[in-house]
Design a protein that fits this description.
By secondary structure, the protein is mainly alpha-helical. The chain has helices at residues 14-31, 39-54, 57-72, 75-88, 98-103, 109-113.
Length: 118
């Protein structure tokens, strides 16, 4: 229908619509007829929303990148991660000292296999 004008609620500006909707919500709570979510309903709703959002792989990549960039700006945090990583890689699965392996000393894979060190 060409030339149809908006009437009623649709013709109001957004602020006026919010004001009216807010009054309706308050009245329902005062009257006791407003729906209040149980913790189980809220959990289910959050789970459903999370599933929907996580299907958008591009969005997930974007927020992951943003988080990584934010963490990387914290130099102290990154230094702490580096120190922790160095501590945990002190020995490998076989119980050999990884630092000795890197320097070509006993305990290196080359020494165990009888291959001359480089």
């Amino acid at each position: 229908m060409a030339g149809t004008k908006q009437r009623g609620f649709a013709s109001m500006d957004e602020e006026k619509q919010r004001e009216i909707a807010s009054l309706g919500g308050r009245a329902a709570h005062q009257k006791g007829t407003a729906h209040e979510f149980t913790s189980e309903e809220a959990r289910a709703a959050g789970h459903k929303g999370g599933e929907t959002v996580s299907r958008d792989r591009e969005h997930m990549a974007r927020i992951g990148r943003k988080g990584g960039q934010a963490v990387s700006r914290n130099r102290e945090h990154m230094a702490q991660i580096g120190r922790k990583g160095g501590e945990s890689s002190g020995s490998n699965r076989d119980g050999h000292d990884a630092r000795a392996s890197r320097s070509g000393q006993a305990g290196s894979r080359d020494a165990r296999e009888g291959t001359p060190s480089r």
